[in-house]
Amino acid sequence: MTMPNTEADGSGTDTRALEALLFVSDEPLTPSVIAQSLEVDRRTADALCDRLAKELEARGAGILLRNVAGGWRLFTHPDTAAEVERFVLSSRQARLTKAALETLAIVAYKQPVTRHQITSIRGVNSDGVIRALQDKGLVEEAGREETPGRPILLATTPTFLERLGLPSLAALPSLAPLLGIDAEPDENPVEEHTASEDAGHAESSEPVESSE
Q1: Do 98-210 and 7-79 fall under one CATH topology?
Q2: What is the pTM (predicted TM-score) of this model?
Q3: What is 23-69 written as a DSSP string?
Q4: Closest Cα to residue 65, out of 85, 89, 45?
Q5: N or C, which end of the chain has less CB nearby within 10 Å?
Q6: 7-79 has CATH 1.10.10.10 classification
Q7: % the chain with pLDDT above 90
């Protein structure tokens, strides 16, 4: 995108960085967040967003920049709705990313689970991945946790079982072999229970390392 007479004062670089921030964000970016990230004042941040929004509209881009819910966010152009819908529906059968598989495994083995718990286990924000899994019909809301704030609980769906060819969640394979935990048969029941607890702890901590 050509922006004459902007590189001298650095605004061209700021606009490029702004586009990158908006691209990676999965929620509206407030002027204060943009200003802090670009190391400019809020008025300049708003001016950059205004200019980018007008440039996208002027050249007939497939995306729009709008000020919504107190922040700036990129949207697909309404004229591309049919193509976008066709793509989204067809991509539901596409392979899951590593992040999606990791998140789905956490939900499957620890359900019902909250978004915060998933993020704590993975070590990275998982909201976008969770939404993608919900769009694919693999994860759904399963009530609310009876704790302060009553966060939403997430669980797998019947479609998840169908895709894996499982009759029920009880048929999910044990995590112990996958984590390299060799259970010794005919041991004391108390020791077996302790090994099971250790597997549970490993389940909570291992994904954080694998997400790096």
Answers
A1: yes
A2: 0.43
A3: HH-SSPBPHHHHHHHHTS-HHHHHHHHHHHHHHHHHTT-SEEEEEET
A4: 45
A5: C
A6: yes
A7: 33
β-bridge partners, 68 = 71
pLDDT digits (tens, 9 = 90+) for 59-92: 899 999 988 878 899 888 989 988 888 876 665 5
Per the listing, tokens 């509209």 go with 57
* Domain assignments of the chain as residue spans, ordered by start: 7-79, 98-210
DSSP-assigned letter for residue 180:
T
Mean pLDDT for all residues in the chain: 77
Tokens encoding 127: 């909201």
Beta strands in 20-150 (DSSP E): 63-68, 71-76, 113-114, 139-144
d(CA 71, CA 30): 4
Structure confidence by residue, pLDDT tens digits, 159-210:
888 877 788 888 888 876 655 555 444 444 333 333 334 434 434 444 434 3
Take residue 55 and report the two structure tokens written for it: 């440039």
pLDDT of 162 reads 81
Q: Which residue has the tokens 């193509």?
A: 83
The confidence score (pLDDT) of residue 90 equals 67
Q: Where does 70-136 have alpha helices with state H?
A: 81-91, 98-110, 115-122, 127-135
As a CATH number, domain 98-210 is: 1.10.10.10
Amino acid at 120: S
